[in-house]
Design a protein that fits this description.
By secondary structure, the protein is mainly beta. It is built from two helices and 18 strands. The longest helix has 7 residues, at about 20-25.
């Protein structure tokens, strides 16, 4: 089931995620299915035979929110979020000109952050971080222009540095295995 924002309904980040029933009480949305049509390799969303602009919400069968996606002229554009069935965030990001752009976050089902990335129009950029499911740091990687450039650090499950790699424009130029030093 999709709910479409017809009057600008947009929850603030500090608000709890609304259920389908709560959104319906606002009387600002239409419950329907978006028609998605593949055109020239691109999926376009339509509502009543018109390219859709607005926010679409999809709900699990239990009524909790599953997906929130913003559309502009039928194309995914702007914020998007996905939740686990219990309402815990699963993934969130931003789309610009049809490409992943800005911060991207992915979470474990326990709510802990799994990955935090940056994109520049689908190109990897900046510092990418990862964590184990208990919140312990797993990796830190540096990207420039969609290419590994700089340090890649990998940590063991205790949070101790285990491996260190150096990249220059995507080419591995050095590595150090820290666990070998502990023996």
């Amino acid at each position: 089931m999709f709910a479409l924002s017809a009057c600008g309904f947009k929850p603030r980040p500090d608000e709890k995620i609304p259920t389908a029933d709560e959104i319906l009480q606002e009387k600002t949305v239409l419950i329907t299915n978006l028609n998605t049509v593949e055109k020239d390799g691109e999926a376009l969303a339509y509502l009543d035979n018109e390219l859709y602009s607005g926010v679409a919400y999809h709900f699990f069968s239990n009524g909790t929110q599953q997906i929130k996606q913003t559309y502009l002229d039928g194309r995914k554009e702007g914020e998007w979020s996905i939740w686990y069935e219990d309402g815990t965030p699963q993934k969130e990001g931003f789309i610009k000109d049809g490409k992943q752009h800005g911060a991207y976050r992915e979470y474990y089902s326990n709510g802990n952050l799994r990955y935090e990335y940056e994109y520049d129009l689908d190109r990897k950029t900046g510092t990418w971080r990862g964590w184990y499911d208990d919140g312990t740091r797993y990796t830190i990687r540096e990207f420039t222009n969609d290419t590994l450039h700089g340090k890649v650090l990998v940590y063991d499950e205790k949070g101790d540095l285990a491996k260190e790699y150096d990249y220059h424009k995507g080419q591995l130029v050095g590595k150090k295995m820290h666990f070998e030093e502990k023996e």
